[in-house]
């Protein structure tokens, strides 16, 4: 018996839409539930960059996400 229900398929489904100035980009991806958060963020950032032709210059030393080291101590 699956604790998440019979419809649980070990996948993460992402739908990201950005629209403005007459442009619209929709990213629809499915990932294994073991995916690293950075892989999902990378895909979203690539969709935004390709839509606007602008690079966000995000590197590995940037901590992206809801939780990151130092969040509670006010550092960034």
List the helices and strands and how they pair.
Blueprint: E1 11-20, E2 23-32, H1 37-52
Antiparallel strand pairs: 1-2
Give an overview in words:
The structure is a single chain. This protein is α+β, with helices and mostly antiparallel strands and 76 residues long. It has a domain at 11-55. It contains 1 helix and 2 strands; from the N terminus they run ββα. The protein has a two-stranded antiparallel sheet. Strand 1 and strand 2 form a beta hairpin. The chain is flat. The model has no long low-confidence stretch (mean pLDDT 78).
Task: Looking at this protein, list some descriptive labels.
76 residues; alpha+beta; two-stranded antiparallel ribbon; 1 helix
- H/E topology pattern: EEH
Describe the strand arrangement of the main beta sheet, using strand numbers: 1-2
What overall geometry do the principal axes of the alpha carbons give?
flat
Instruction: Report, as a whole number of angstroms, the end-to-end distance.
Output: 43 Å
Mean pLDDT across the residues is: 78
Instruction: Bin the helical content.
Output: 10-25%
Please state the structural category: alpha+beta
Low-confidence stretches: none
Task: Summarize the biggest pleated sheet.
Answer: 2 strands, antiparallel
**Number of E strands:** 2
Cα radius of gyration in angstroms: 16 Å
Percent of residues in β-strands: 25-35%
Short description:
The chain is an alpha+beta fold.
